[in-house]
Amino acid sequence: MTRNIWRAAVIMMLVLGLGMTAQAEDTKIGFVDLDQAIGATAEGKAAREELERKMREAELDMKPLMERYQSLGEEYQKKSVVLSPEKLREMQLDITELENQLKLKQSEFENRLQLDRQRLVEPLMQRLQLTVNEVGRDQGFSLILIRGAPGVLYYKEALDITDVVIEQFNKEK
User: What pTM was computed for the model?
Assistant: First the structure.
């Protein structure tokens, strides 16, 4: 958190410094919403669809285990009065084992999803950053910031160049 505050302070000092030293040339600042830009590209849409498909597959994979866990929990609740202490302990162990299996599957799923997200989104993010650099250079921007970055509390909507970046990115295909 402290690192982000320092970054924001440095960026703001740079912005203020550019404003003071840029007397011969106008300072041009833009903002880009990288998530929106990725979501608006064909590759980004395909990546999102693949991630959603993998999430649905994981949910279907976990569904029988979840149903078994719920039914065993309900059975335990209903029969807790009539079963012997040994049988109750056995059921508790079964419930705990199912719960651990569910947690393990959930953890595996989250790790796979994170790896898939990195595999699908990071190359797009790198290409998008190159496109932002190109747009900044070609259109004479002094500074382009990420919308929602730490330290940015307000900006004019007119400074948002996300659509320009998306258009340029789609042209480069």
Answer: 0.65
